[in-house]
Amino acid sequence: MFDFFLLYLHYPDLFAMFIKLFGIVLSFLYVLYAFVMVKQVEVLIKTIQVHDNGVLKLATLVQLILSLILLAYGILIL
């Protein structure tokens, strides 16, 4: 596992590696945020009677799926 990091220490452009790692970390934080939003909407729907709860669930699930795609893009492409 440390060989992976040692390989990047000899990377010619250290700034580019920093930007890539920063993007991956921010993508992971966005996935956590989207997951928390899904849980909050579930609690909201149980607590308050919302007439259009399907739209809220759909919006949060779309956000979660897009955040997972963004994280996969960051890991595989960057």
Strand tally is 0
Specify the structural class.
mainly alpha
Give the radius of gyration: 18 Å
Order of helices and strands: HHH
Major sheet: size, sense and barrel closure?
none
Please give the share of residues in helix.
Answer: over 70%
Point out poorly predicted stretches.
Answer: none
Termini separation comes to 18 Å
Q: Give the overall form.
A: rod-shaped
- How many DSSP H or I helices? 3
Beta-strand portion reads under 5%
Q: What's the rounded overall pLDDT mean? A: 85
Secondary structure topology:
Layout (H helix, E strand, L loop, with lengths): L1 H8 L4 H34 L5 H24 L2
Helix pairs in contact: 2-3
Task: Describe the protein in words.
By secondary structure, the chain is mostly helical. 85% of the residues lie in helices and 0% in strands. The protein has 3 helices and no strands. The chain has helices spanning 2-9, 14-47, 53-76. Helix 2 packs antiparallel against helix 3. The longest helix is centred in the middle third of the chain and has 34 residues, at 14-47. The model has no long low-confidence stretch (mean pLDDT 85).
